[in-house]
């Protein structure tokens, strides 16, 4: 027993997790942000309309929505460790294909098709990674690292929206064409993912519980029966109604904001935007935004592990939604001071990092049970559906309303997420640090 009352074996496991949890969730975040967000910046850079960007990139969420359909396969065939490494290698190959497609005249159709295939691969990686996380750490370890995993997930988001975009902007300002700058950026991502796969091959632990689920050898009927049993066990869970509402509506405002934030920052002032360059957008999200999001995520994980999810649910809900008001201000005031724009993004990103902890920890809490890997996959699919549908129509809403009223609408869209909170039933002890026996 260690000095803080936690068994030494558990402390050792938590210390060891620092070598793989950050890198695993960084690898999980990169594909989603590239496919759903950086693609928005890239297509805007290449002159594609807001409506077309929002609609087609919105469709790219579909693999994450339907991934529960093949989630049980990850449970049944091979280990989650193997799935993680295999999908990371394929992700590197996918990024290389995007780079090769950029110079083509039909680059839009070609890259959308590649992104579509990569989205299926990334969704499979998510299933394996989230299941591996829950198998490798106990409840306290999961609560302790939920802030870390969400922070590194968002660091991946900001690295994609920040550093990668800055790289493309740097190449553009030094004489490179739009297509060439993105070609170099995607080849860089390909190399990164091959290195990550090699690193995880040697570093990821081999928990004894990471074994394929047993399926009776009695044919396809038995397999389908087991498959639907997993789904039925999720949708018959106690409290499923409020949980579904929470998963679908908690990020309804963000789902629309994330699709139009970059186009707003890039559009000319005559179109209601802030007229930032590609490099400036990368700087906003890749420096100030990254630092503040990191602090927000770490703070969220610390308080959740200290006091439990239930105590911090409302403050975190406020933190993730209320800061969206900075976009209302920027759309109406159109500030040309780059420092003010950075401060607005910093405020929004800190709130997101702090508040998103509640969303992730609730999914971990509700997934507990015999099929927690598949149940977590179902919830992330519902989360993606909650992002996909509002995001697909956001371009048309913005085109009709204009940026100022659109961002007001984003704030209105956060209301359903607050309405469902009182109906969530969460164990007050979940996530709290336990000391000797059951003491707190």
Helix-strand layout with pairing:
Elements: H1 8-17, H2 21-45, H3 50-59, H4 62-66, H5 71-76, H6 80-101, H7 107-136, H8 139-173, H9 178-203, H10 220-235, H11 240-249, H12 252-266, H13 278-307, H14 309-321, H15 325-333, H16 338-367, H17 372-401, H18 403-412, H19 415-420
Structure write-up:
The protein has helices spanning 8-17, 21-45, 50-59, 62-66, 71-76, 80-101, 107-136, 139-173, 178-203, 220-235, 240-249, 252-266, 278-307, 309-321, 325-333, 338-367, 372-401, 403-412, 415-420. By secondary structure, it is mostly helical. The protein has one domain (8-205, 222-413): Growth Hormone, Chain: A (Up-down Bundle), CATH 1.20.1250.20. Residues 434-440 have low confidence and may be disordered.
């Amino acid at each position: 027993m260690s000095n803080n009352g936690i068994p030494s074996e558990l402390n050792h496991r938590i210390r060891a997790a620092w070598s793989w949890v950050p890198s695993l969730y960084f690898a999980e975040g990169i594909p989603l942000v590239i496919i759903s967000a950086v693609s928005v910046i890239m297509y805007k850079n290449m002159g594609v309309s807001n409506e077309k960007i929002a609609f087609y990139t919105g469709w790219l969420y579909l693999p994450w929505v339907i991934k529960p359909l093949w989630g049980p396969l990850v449970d049944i065939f091979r280990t989650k460790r193997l799935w993680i490494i295999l999908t990371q290698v394929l992700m590197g190959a996918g990024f290389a294909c995007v780079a090769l497609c950029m110079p083509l005249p039909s680059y839009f159709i070609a890259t959308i098709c590649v992104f579509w295939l990569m989205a299926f691969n990334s969704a499979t990686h998510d299933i394996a990674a989230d299941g591996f996380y829950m198998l490798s750490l106990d409840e306290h370890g999961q609560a302790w690292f939920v802030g870390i995993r969400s922070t590194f997930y968002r660091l991946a988001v900001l690295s994609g929206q920040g550093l990668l975009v800055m790289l493309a902007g740097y190449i553009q300002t030094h004489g490179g064409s739009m297509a060439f700058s993105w070609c170099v950026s995607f080849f860089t991502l390909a190399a990164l993912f091959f290195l990550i796969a090699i690193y995880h091959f040697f570093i990821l632990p081999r928990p004894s519980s990471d074994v394929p689920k047993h399926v009776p050898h009695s044919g396809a009927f038995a397999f389908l029966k087991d498959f639907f049993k997993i789904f039925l066990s999720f949708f018959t869970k106690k409290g499923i109604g409020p949980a579904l509402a929470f998963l679908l509506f908690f990020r309804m405002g963000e789902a629309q904001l994330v699709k139009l934030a970059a186009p707003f920052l890039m559009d000319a002032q005559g179109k209601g935007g802030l007229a930032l360059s590609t490099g400036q957008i990368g700087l906003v999200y890749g420096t100030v935004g990254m630092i503040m999001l990191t602090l927000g995520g770490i703070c969220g994980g610390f308080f959740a592990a200290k006091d439990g999810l239930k105590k911090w649910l409302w403050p975190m809900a406020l933190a993730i939604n209320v800061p969206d008001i900075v976009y209302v201000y920027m759309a109406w005031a159109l500030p040309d001071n780059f420092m003010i724009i950075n401060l607005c993004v910093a405020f929004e990103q800190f709130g997101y990092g702090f508040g998103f902890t509640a969303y992730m920890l609730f999914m971990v809490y509700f997934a507990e049970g015999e099929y927690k890997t598949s149940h977590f996959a179902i919830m992330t699919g519902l989360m993606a559906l909650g992002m996909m549908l509002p995001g697909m129509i956001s371009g048309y809403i913005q085109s009709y309303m204009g940026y100022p009223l659109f961002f007001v609408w984003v704030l209105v869209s956060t209301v359903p997420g607050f309405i469902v909170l009182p109906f969530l039933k969460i164990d007050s002890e979940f996530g709290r640090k336990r000391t000797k026996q059951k003491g707190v």
